[in-house]
């Protein structure tokens, strides 16, 4: 298995577990949040799935100065709608990751537009996976606070 295939597998496993968590969210809790400053449960789901489009733009050296998310102005309907809308963006991101060689992962410099930090592409990609994993942990705490059954994700 190549480095890019391993990274892609990791992304797929993280997303599989995220979806397992999200599927436990009852509709009446879509807009629940632990406090006024926090994202609602649905906002967090969208935040995670919409990030793929931004990551893909960044790793392909796209211009982020006037970035517009495809989700901009899109109403929140339900989890299946969010996942379906995200599907082509997720696929494009995974396809981009798969095409990188070991040399590109080790030498290509990525500058994150939000904070200006410079990272090698492989490191940057692993951090994007960590981003989603952190939100999975956050979502688990949301489910606990809601009193909702939490699925076993450690398979």
From TrEMBL:
InterPro entries on file: DinB-like, DinB/YfiT-like
Ranges where the DinB-like domain occurs: 11-138
The protein's name: DinB family protein
UniProt source species: Rapidithrix thailandica
């Amino acid at each position: 298995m190549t480095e890019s295939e391993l990274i892609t597998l990791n992304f797929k496993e993280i997303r599989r577990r995220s979806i397992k968590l999200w599927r436990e969210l009852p509709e009446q809790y879509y807009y629940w949040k632990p406090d006024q400053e926090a994202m609602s449960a649905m906002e967090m789901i969208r935040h995670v799935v919409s990030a793929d489009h931004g990551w893909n733009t960044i790793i392909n050296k796209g211009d982020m100065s006037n970035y517009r998310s495809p989700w901009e102005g899109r109403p929140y309907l339900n989890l299946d709608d969010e996942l379906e809308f995200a599907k082509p963006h997720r696929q494009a991101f995974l396809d981009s990751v798969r095409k990188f060689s070991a040399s590109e992962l080790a030498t290509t410099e990525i500058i994150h537009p939000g904070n200006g930090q410079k990272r090698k592409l492989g490191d940057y990609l692993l951090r994007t996976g960590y981003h989603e994993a952190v939100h999975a942990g956050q979502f688990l705490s949301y489910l606990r606070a809601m009193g909702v059954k939490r699925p076993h994700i450690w398979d």
